[in-house]
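User: My instructor asked us to take a sequence, write out its structure as tokens, and then describe one feature of it. I'm not sure where to start. Here is the sequence I was given:
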Amino acid sequence: MLKIGDTVRWKGGFGTAAAKDAVVKGISKGAFSGDKDGEEIGEVAWNKLHDSRRYIVSLDNGHWAWASQIKRK
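Assistant: Let's start with the prediction itself. The structure tokens for your sequence are:
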């Protein structure tokens, strides 16, 4: 499970930048792919992140990321 408080490897630049560690501050699930105004959730199974533009993760570095931009640490 990906949970708030987990440390992940994040790639900025929509996945093109070098990977850096970041802590998850929030997770939201959109009603459809590309929806940025989703429902706040506390955790999500990693295998559900296949629809990478449906989940947005807020990070402690001031950035947000689509699920495709993060990996397990």
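For the description part of your assignment, you could build on this observation: The two ends are 12 Å apart (CA to CA). Try explaining in your own words what that tells you about the chain.
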